[in-house]
Protein: Histidine phosphatase family protein
Organism: Amycolatopsis thailandensis
Amino acid sequence: MTCEIVLVRHAESVPPSPGKPDDPDRPLTTAGIAAAELLAPELAAMNPTAVVSSPYRRAVATVEPAARLAGLEVTTSWELREWDSGLEPTPDYAVHYARSWADPDFARTGAESLRQLTARAIAAVERLAEQHAGGVVLLGSHGTFVSRLLAGIIPGIDWPFSRDMPMPAIHRLRWPPGS
């Protein structure tokens, strides 16, 4: 049995602070909050049977208005978190991300490679699809998570795709792919 997975990349969030690790508690900006509210009717109209999110505040806040409209609770899963790049926020982050996309097996000490993120993302979605077979799951997450999941199943997903993904963004999938 198939499951529809609706990937929701979080809305605009407060930028990370240089010199500090990425903060899971970073909130949405005022514009991000408004975008999440505007997106909620569209997402709720998909008749979700579950709303699952990265535990990061910005991801939960993006899907919570849709969950409320659909009469559902947002549950969180650590597996849906953003990529653990091992990088502190820096103005030149794009150079480092491009390097990782060029070599998905590259990982900084103690961090996750993009290939590992792809495997984590696919495994997480497979589990959700099994748990919610026949349903529609709104999945709140992050740009790199969404991009690497898509890269694992769709040819041609690359660094420019990830870099240029809007906030928020929606991608609809049938799971298993090709079903």
About this structure: The domain at 3-175 is CATH 3.40.50.1240 (Rossmann fold). The chain is about 40% helix and 15% strand. The CA atoms of residues 91 and 98 lie 14 Å apart. The two ends are 9 Å apart (CA to CA).
